[in-house]
């Protein structure tokens, strides 16, 4: 399990590591040794404690440098949130009293329309990035709003806090319910190009653009085609929504009568690629799932939102049977929690309910859900060559978790540690080998000065 030494070994950890592989939903590596290359932030080796002598020689570190995990601790891969609306964090946990299309008109569009205000954007985006990092989300696939400068600000904040992110400036040239929160197709196309160019010029190491048509109901065919072409030309990720709610599915059929299905609307505009992630997919047919598989497009399962907006129930087992790449998403604020741990619990609950209703239904296991939240998410975002588990050569995106609550070791409560995220004890968060800044520490002037500009 070793690679030869590349740069310099900054950290070697010894203890329990848990992760998933394509063959094993959950693998527990006890008394493991894992070395991180400090220069590139990648995993240099993974071995057993019994191989200590050989590893110290091969990688030139002293046993005294090893950081030993406590008996109640383990490392797991960072969580991958494949679908989250950053501006909607401003009203998360409220307004879940109506179905999707009314909810968009009543709460979402009015709230998002305010994000031309960069002070508001800075406040909310700082909160959502901090909170998701504390909850263990090392990679987030964000929707922003239609406002290019505020979307670029979200990229900056994600970079400053050290989170890995895909960020999308939302595109919508159709919005009868709130025309001021809409663009012309020319504006949407030009601003998407500006967003991509300005973001790529920043050369943030971990933050990249994702082409983001909101969903088929908010976009004309002309805009969808332009966005497909932009994504193709620049080899970019794509994200949108699909088949979330019955009324939405019906209206898409009426709006795009030439298309064979909702999936075909995106496919015929070159928006289904192996770098596409579509949220929800509750009502996709087997033929549509086959098209996802053929194109390599992925789904993001968002159970909290599906329940909260009473949108639908995704049959995850059927998605997996079609070999469609699948990750999990919090879908803030249709989902009221920004915690991927919450999303994991809801995924399990929904699957168990399906199993209760149909005794032949093979409910997901906790191990399978763990894989969806980590390796599955990395596959859904086509990042599984880089992140998702503890393979040599991948970036070290990891959570140090302490399971002893509430009277755990004192270092849980030290001010330079990330605080307890929701109700589990993530004591350290690493992204690309770097311990993420103690974001609640006001003495961290580098972060403060970046964000107060
Ligand atoms: O859950 C959702 N949240 C949204 O913001 C949205 N927009 C289109 N479709 C959507 N679904």
UniProtKB/TrEMBL annotation:
Gene3D superfamilies: Metal-dependent hydrolases, Urease, subunit C, domain 1. Its EC number is 3.5.4.3. It comes from the Eukaryota. It is an enzyme of class 3 (hydrolase). The keyword Hydrolase applies. It catalyses: guanine + H2O + H(+) = xanthine + NH4(+). One of its GO terms (molecular function) is guanine deaminase activity. Its cofactor is Zn(2+). GO terms for biological process: guanine catabolic process. GO terms for cellular component: cytosol. Keywords: Hydrolase, Metal-binding, Phosphoprotein, Zinc. The keyword Transcription does not apply. Pathway: Purine metabolism; guanine degradation; xanthine from guanine: step 1/1. Belongs to the metallo-dependent hydrolases superfamily. ATZ/TRZ family. Homodimer. PANTHER family: GUANINE DEAMINASE. This is Guanine deaminase. It comes from Takifugu rubripes.
């Amino acid at each position: 399990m070793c690679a030869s030494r590349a740069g310099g070994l900054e950290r070697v950890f010894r203890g329990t590591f848990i992760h998933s592989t394509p063959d094993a939903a959950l693998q527990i590596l006890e008394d493991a040794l894992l070395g991180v290359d400090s220069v590139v932030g990648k995993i240099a080796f993974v071995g057993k404690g019994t191989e200590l002598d050989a590893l110290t020689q091969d990688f030139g570190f002293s046993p005294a440098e090893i950081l030993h995990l406590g008996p109640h601790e383990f490392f797991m891969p960072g969580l991958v949130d494949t679908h989250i609306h950053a501006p909607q964090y401003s009203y998360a946990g409220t307004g879940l009293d109506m179905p999707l299309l009314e909810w968009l008109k009543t709460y979402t569009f009015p709230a998002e329309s305010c994000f031309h205000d960069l002070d508001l954007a800075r406040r909310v985006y700082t909160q959502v990035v901090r909170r998701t990092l504390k909850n263990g989300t090392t990679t987030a696939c964000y929707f922003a709003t239609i406002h290019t400068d505020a979307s670029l600000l979200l990229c900056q904040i994600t970079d400053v806090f050290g989170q890995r992110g895909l960020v999308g400036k939302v595109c919508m040239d159709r919005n009868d319910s709130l025309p001021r929160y809409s663009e012309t197709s020319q504006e949407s196309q030009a601003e998407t190009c500006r967003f991509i160019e300005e973001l790529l010029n920043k050369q943030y190491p971990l933050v990249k653009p994702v082409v983001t048509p909101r969903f088929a109901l908010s976009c004309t065919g002309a805009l969808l085609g332009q966005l497909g072409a932009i994504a193709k030309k620049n080899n970019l990720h794509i994200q949108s929504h699909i088949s979330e709610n019955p009324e939405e599915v019906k209206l898409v059929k009426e709006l795009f009568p030439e298309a064979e299905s909702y999936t075909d609307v995106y496919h015929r505009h070159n928006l289904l690629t192996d770098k596409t992630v579509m949220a929800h997919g509750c009502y996709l047919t087997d033929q549509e799932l086959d098209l996802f598989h053929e194109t390599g497009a992925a789904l993001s399962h968002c159970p909290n939102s599906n329940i909260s907006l009473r949108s639908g129930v995704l049959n995850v087992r059927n998605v997996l049977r079609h070999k469609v790449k699948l990750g999990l998403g919090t879908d803030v604020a249709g989902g009221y929690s920004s915690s991927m741990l919450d999303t994991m619990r809801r995924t399990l609950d929904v699957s168990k309910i399906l199993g209760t209703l149909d005794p032949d239904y093979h409910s997901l296991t906790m191990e399978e859900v763990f894989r969806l939240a980590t390796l599955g998410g990395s596959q859904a975002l086509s990042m599984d060559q880089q992140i998702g588990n503890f393979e040599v050569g991948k970036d070290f995106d990891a959570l140090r978790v302490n399971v002893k609550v509430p009277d755990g070791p004192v270092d849980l409560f030290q001010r330079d540690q990330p605080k307890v995220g929701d109700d589990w004890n993530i004591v350290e968060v690493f992204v690309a080998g770097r311990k993420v800044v103690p974001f609640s520490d006001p003495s961290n002037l580098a972060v403060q000065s970046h964000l107060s500009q």
